[in-house]
Amino acid sequence: MVYLAGLVGLVLILTAEARVGYSFKSHFCTESKECLLYDLVCKNDDYEVRHYDSVKWVSTDEEAYFMDKATYTAFRRLFNYITGSNKAGVNIDMTAPVTVKIEEKKWGSSVFTLSFLLPSTHQMTPPQPTDDKVYFTEMPDMKVYVRGYGGWMMSLTSSVNSMLLKRQLDKVQATYNKDYHYAVGYDSPKKILNRHNEVWYIVEGEPVCPTSS
Question: What span, in angstroms and rounded, lies between the C-alpha atoms of 154 and 163?
């Protein structure tokens, strides 16, 4: 029985490591030890489709009119969590990417959900937060439509690229979740050149990925 429990535990750890792996396996991750890994489903000149396994994040919500203001406050909250403001009092390695879940609203303020990917060593049993605004989320097994872009991830650049991705998806009659999307950043503020950001929309049904759209 002890052997079986140990074997199950080993399988769970290896599964977590398969979803969150060393950054050298992804050319987007240049500053962190570990990164969110994926399988490429298909790709064309306008976007690509990726498959992500289920993985755990630490998250917080912030309401604002603009993403920039919300993420400034939310980032400090999560950064405090990974630098010891948790019930175990431990430091947790920063990973990539950082995601912002954005409601698809035309007017008024929105709730922005900022999330840090938990490293593989904390995927199963992460330290509990001391801040009641910090909580854990489980990203489901999913496929996403992805558009990448350089520069800085700000309200304007994120909005423009989400609009461009939606335009391409609608052009090929792809079905996707239109209630929200993700703004995704891979780099710290201190990195100036060769920055990489993305916009994600969750695939609904079978992904559409024509060679030329």
Answer: 14
Long-range contacts of 101-105 (CB under 8 A, 24+ apart): 101/180, 101/181, 101/182, 102/67, 102/158, 102/162, 102/180, 102/181, 102/182, 102/183, 103/179, 103/180, 104/178, 104/179, 104/180, 104/181
Torsional sign, CA 138, 94, 33, 30: positive
Question: With contact defined as beta carbons under 8 Å apart, do 61 and 75 qualify?
Answer: no
Share of the chain above pLDDT 70, in %: 91
Q: What is the b/e burial string over 9-22, where b = at least 16 CB atoms within 10 angstroms of the residue's CB?
A: eeeeeeebbebbbe
Cα distance between residue 55 and residue 20, in whole Å: 8
- Collapsing DSSP to helix, strand or coil, 73 comes out as helix
* Tens digits of residue pLDDT in 150-200: 999 999 999 999 999 999 999 999 999 999 999 999 999 899 999 999 999
Question: What H or E segment, with its residue span, contains residue 117?
Answer: strand 110-117
Residue 7 reports pLDDT greater than 80: no
Amino acid at 31: E
- Measured distance between the N- and C-terminal CA atoms of the chain, rounded to whole angstroms: 56
Provide the whole-model pTM: 0.89
Kind and range of the H or E run holding 161: helix 155-171
pLDDT of residue 55: 97
